[in-house]
Design goal:
single chain; 210 residues; alpha/beta; Rossmann fold; 7-stranded parallel beta sheet; 7 strands; binds adenosine-5'-triphosphate; binds magnesium ion; CobQ/CobB/MinD/ParA_Nub-bd_dom
């Protein structure tokens, strides 16, 4: 079983977007996938409910008020994706971090968002397994507009941080539309969607290695 925690204290950075798309990717890859929703907003639970009839359904588990979330995991779960709530630092997420095989942190490419994420990353660096490099942390630049100076400067700034930038996902309305349908980028095959799927390749490779 592989467990991926998607987390950042910064609101609206793309945690649920990353968590739901990752969960769909694993399910479409034939893995029994659980989406642990740690956010009382329940965005990813509603998303999973919308795809409940699909062959690549994922099982949602509400962990927003339960520390004993692992008791709800089916024995045959192969992939677990955890969608963390905004406002949580590493200490608040300890009961997820201790079971994680990798932590993915989405960051929007703006000075304000980057500054707001520093505190969260500092809190992660105090986690013993992170500090000893036993638990990898990867940054995902989300809603990137690669043709703009702002996005380019943000990526350059993030590359100086002690955690690798493992993907840059471009800004596209597709994520907004698909979230509302209980779908993911990986449910489609059109040329335009495939182009955006390619943004995920380095992240998926990094997760495979983790
Ligand atoms: N790459 C993207 N391109 C365009 N829109 C995006 C992208 N990623 C996320 N969004 C949109 O941005 C909004 C915030 O994303 P999301 O809900 O995933 O963030 P979050 O970190 O889970 O927020 P919260 O902290 O409230 O839980 C959503 O409307 C989502 O559809
Ligand atoms: Mg969310």
């Amino acid at each position: 079983m592989k467990t991926i925690l998607v987390a950042s204290s910064k609101g609206g950075a793309g945690k649920s977007t990353l968590a739901t798309n990752l969960a769909a990717y694993f399910a479409l890859d034939g893995k029994r996938t659980v989406l642990v929703d740690a956010d009382p907003q329940h965005s990813s639970t509603r998303w999973a409910e919308r795809r409940a009839e699909m062959e690549s359904a994922v099982l949602p588990i509400d962990a927003s008020s339960k520390r004993a979330w692992r008791a709800w995991l089916p024995d045959d779960a192969e992939r677990v994706v955890i969608d963390a709530p905004a406002g949580s630092m590493a200490d608040d997420l300890q009961h997820f971090i201790e079971h994680a095989d990798a932590i993915v942190v989405p960051v929007l490419p703006s000075a304000m968002d980057i500054e707001a994420t520093v505190g969260f990353l500092n809190s992660l660096s105090k986690v013993s397994r992170v500090h000893k490099r036993q638990l990898p942390v990867g940054l995902v630049v989300n809603r990137s507009k690669p043709w703009t100076n702002t996005s380019q400067q943000a990526v350059e700034m993030l590359k100086t941080w002690p955690y690798p930038v493992v993907a840059q996902l471009r800004d596209t309305q597709a994520y907004v539309v698909l979230a509302g349908l209980g779908r993911s980028l990986f449910d489609y095959r059109s040329a335009q969607v495939r182009d955006h799927q390619a943004d995920w390749d380095p992240l998926l490779k990094w997760i495979k290695k983790a």
